[in-house]
Design brief:
Elements (H helix, E strand, L loop, with lengths): L3 H16 L1 H7 L5 E2 L11 E11 L7 E13 L3 H16 L5 E2 L2 E15 L5 E14 L1
Parallel strand pairs: 1-2
Antiparallel strand pairs: 2-3, 3-6, 4-5, 5-6
Length: about 140
């Protein structure tokens, strides 16, 4: 799974999220978006770029990939669930059907696939996860 398209897509998604005023309204400016779960002292809410999946979607003449990317929103305390929902709405407004520039590829489709929310066993931490699908064609 070491296809360079993964890193290029992740960089493009990260840039789009960090530049979004809707995202900044939820997780600050500069936006609290991480590539891993941060240390416990981090301010809430925040976003984490989670796992990626990759599958071929091309033919002998065109390299094509379908990449799935999950984004997690995390918040805590009394605004936790509301924060998570607002963060996921901002991610949706930023990414669903967006035009992204992905180095070495044409990104022909970005779409929301699924989402869910939950509360951790600590009773304070809320999480929401949204999965997006990206269709890339090699250039």
């Amino acid at each position: 799974m070491a296809d360079p398209s993964l890193a290029a897509l992740q960089a493009s998604v990260l840039a789009a999220l960090k530049a979004s005023s809707a995202i900044q309204a939820q997780v600050g400016n500069p936006a609290r978006i991480y590539g891993h779960v941060p240390e416990p002292e981090v301010d809430f809410p925040y976003l984490v770029l989670e796992g990626m999946s990759i599958a071929p979607d091309g033919d002998k003449t065109v390299k094509g990939l379908v990449i799935g990317l999950s984004i997690e929103a995390v918040s805590r305390d009394y605004r936790g669930h509301g924060d998570v929902l607002e963060c996921l709405d901002a991610v949706y407004a930023t990414l669903h059907r967006a035009s992204l520039t992905v180095t070495g590829n044409d990104c022909t489709l970005v779409r929301f696939v699924a989402g869910e929310t939950s509360r951790d066993d600590d009773g304070l931490t809320y999480r929401g996860q949204a999965t997006y699908e990206f269709l890339l064609r090699g250039t």
